[in-house]
């Protein structure tokens, strides 16, 4: 795990996600010696990710940045670039729109994901580099690393952790960290 010495932080370089048990939407996320229960997409893991298929992509993805709601930036310990979620913050999931798989603000009339959620899943939400740097229409959007629902019910294709586990990992995550889903 990370150690801090004179303002130098050594972060986790790899988070490995592997399915566990009979439920295809459950996984173990390994972070160094830690093994944490995680929720995956309702369709499990797929090498052929498509928009709306409910699958978590089998891939190696960088952590790009993140969003938070509530406590304020000082309460979030991470070197990742973080922005507060505002009520007008959206994410385009319409493959036909020029803003596909990009953050944007309301009002927006094409299909989109609302980041300010009533269920709090995105109160800590990290953006994974799935179909962002090398964007292809229809290959999946809004693949995030976010908070899990009680009971680790399936996501729409994201990876989700218990809030306690997410807060435990955040200080060790950097832009060099990769999420490897296998």
Which features does this protein show?
16 strands, disordered N terminus, globular, 182 residues, 1 helix, mainly beta, three-stranded antiparallel β-sheet, L,D-transpeptidase catalytic domain-like
Structural class: mainly beta
Low-confidence stretches: 2-9
CATH topology: L,D-transpeptidase catalytic domain-like
- Could you name the CATH class? Mainly Beta
Question: How would the global form be characterised?
Answer: globular
What oligomeric state best describes the polypeptide chains here?
A: single chain
Binned strand content: 35-45%
Q: Looking at this structure, what is the CATH superfamily?
A: L,D-transpeptidase catalytic domain-like
What sequence of helices (H) and strands (E) makes up the elements?
A: EEEEEEEEEEEEEEEHE
Number of strands: 16
Label the CATH architecture. Answer: Beta Barrel
Domains (count): 1
State Rg: 16 Å
Distance between the termini: 22 Å
Please bin the fraction of helical residues. Answer: under 10%
What's the mean pLDDT score?
92
Q: The biggest beta sheet, please?
A: 8 strands, mixed, barrel
Strand order in the largest sheet: 3-4-5-15-14-13-8-16
Q: Counting H and I runs of at least 4 residues, what is the number of helices?
A: 1
Q: How would you sum up this structure, described in words?
A:
It is a single chain. The protein is mostly beta strands. The chain has a single domain, classed as L,D-transpeptidase catalytic domain-like (Beta Barrel). 4% of the residues lie in helices and 35% in strands. It is built from 1 helix and 16 strands. An 8-stranded mixed β-barrel has the order 3-4-5-15-14-13-8-16. Strands 11-10-12 form a 3-stranded antiparallel β-sheet, with no helix packed on it. A hairpin with a 6-residue loop joins strand 3 (14-19) and strand 4 (26-31). It is globular, with a radius of gyration of 16 Å. It starts with a strand and ends with a strand. The model is unreliable at 2-9 (pLDDT under 50).
């Amino acid at each position: 795990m990370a150690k801090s010495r004179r303002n130098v932080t050594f972060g986790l370089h790899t988070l490995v996600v592997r399915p566990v048990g009979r439920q295809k939407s459950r996984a173990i996320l390994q972070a160094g010696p830690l093994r944490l229960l995680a929720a995956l997409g309702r369709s499990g893991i797929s090498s052929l990710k498509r928009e709306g298929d409910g699958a978590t992509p089998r891939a190696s993805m960088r952590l790009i940045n993140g969003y938070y709601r509530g406590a304020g930036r000082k309460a979030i310990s991470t070197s990742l670039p973080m922005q507060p979620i505002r009520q007008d913050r959206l994410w385009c999931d319409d493959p036909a729109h020029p803003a596909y798989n990009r953050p944007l603000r309301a009002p927006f009339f094409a299909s989109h994901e609302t980041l300010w959620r009533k269920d709090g899943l995105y109160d800590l939400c990290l953006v994974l580099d799935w179909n962002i740097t090398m964007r292809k229409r229809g290959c999946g959007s809004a693949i995030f690393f976010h908070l899990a629902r009680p009971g680790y019910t399936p996501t729409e294709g994201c990876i989700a952790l218990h809030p306690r586990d997410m807060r435990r990992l955040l200080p060790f995550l950097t832009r060099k960290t990769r999420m490897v889903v296998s």
